[in-house]
Write a structure and sequence with these properties.
heterodimer; A: mainly beta; B: two-stranded parallel ribbon; two-stranded parallel ribbon; 11 helices; globular
């Protein structure tokens, strides 16, 4: 969905399966957040970690509410993380 | 290669654990085969040793003292840091500005990404599992363990350094520092305040300026 990415857009973070070098923490997989900042192009560190030729990605900062991550969380506290664009999905997609 | 291969002449080498001895043996081999200049690793070690929170403190103090520099830090953090004669390091950099409404704190849950160019090597607790696992889930609780109590009306925002960026928290400028030079302000900027687990140090009695301006 690289073409449709823009600040303010709600996205779901992918659920990555299997062994490998994943730069998406498990606690955030499958959760929805909002794109806040386009950090620009970057080489895919997940490919680099396996000595594969890295694809060009874009890195986005995604903001999530702690309340959307943890059952006991309350209030407006939030979390931001950097996500490669190939791990971003439309938020309306069915949960895998 | 003989079994008693020179371990790089490091006096501590024989006492090192196996992986340490392997590292020195590899270094000696690389030098012997001409892949590595003899003094190169020492230069790298000295570069690493020269990095300390004093560099980050200079950046923060300058941002407190100069609105123009603060804006430059927002626009192009690496260039702004370099303009002070400080090496910004190899990674993209982002400033996280604390305000009365927002408190930022940094973690790397996947490993131990850290703005080493500006803060030197990370503290052990930053790399340890309890901090990494808990600060993303219960940040106020973890901050309280550092003695930092964030007002309930202030949003706490955790930044998980997962891909390509390094983060430096710009703590709030302490009260009682009106008119201070950047050099003097830098004495209040601690490592932990630039990670976001504590505020900057407050001036002690007798140190504070009478009029309070931020």
């Amino acid at each position: 969905m690289a073409d449709a990415l823009a600040p303010g857009r709600r996205v779901r973070l992918a659920v990555l399966h299997g062994a490998g070098h994943h730069r998406l923490p498990a606690y955030a997989m499958g959760r929805c957040g909002v794109l806040v900042h386009d950090c620009g192009p970057a080489e895919d560190a997940e490919a680099l970690a396996h000595c594969r030729p890295p694809a060009q990605r874009r890195v986005w900062r995604v903001r999530l509410r702690l309340a959307d991550l943890w059952p006991e969380a309350r209030g407006a506290d939030s979390l931001e993380l950097e996500v490669y664009d190939n791990h971003l999905e439309p938020c309306d997609a069915a949960r895998p | 290669m003989p079994h008693d291969h020179d371990l790089g002449g490091h006096p501590a080498a024989p006492a090192l654990p196996r992986h340490g001895r392997l590292a020195y043996a590899l270094q000696a081999l690389l030098v012997e085969r001409g892949h590595l200049a003899a003094g190169h690793l020492q230069t790298v070690r000295e570069t690493i040793a020269a990095r300390s929170p004093a560099r980050g403190a200079r950046v923060v103090a300058e941002a407190w003292a100069s609105p123009a520099f603060r804006q430059a830090l927002r626009d192009d953090p690496r260039a702004a840091v370099a303009s002070l004669g400080i090496d910004p390091g190899p990674s993209a950099l982002m400033m996280l500005e604390n305000t009365e409404a927002l408190h930022n704190v940094v973690v790397c849950t996947l490993c131990s990404c850290y703005p080493r160019a500006l803060l030197g090597p990370p503290p052990d607790w930053y790399k340890a599992v309890p901090y990494r696992a808990r600060v993303v889930r219960a940040p106020r609780e973890v901050l309280a363990e550092f003695g930092t109590h964030i007002d309930p009306g202030t949003e706490v925002r955790v930044h998980d350094s997962t891909a390509d960026l390094r983060y430096l928290v710009l703590p709030l400028r302490p009260a009682g520092t009106a008119g201070w030079t950047a050099e003097r302000l830098a004495t209040l900027v601690t490592r932990d305040s630039m990670i976001g687990v504590t505020p900057a140090r407050a001036p002690v009695a007798g140190e504070a300026s009478p009029d309070d301006a931020r």
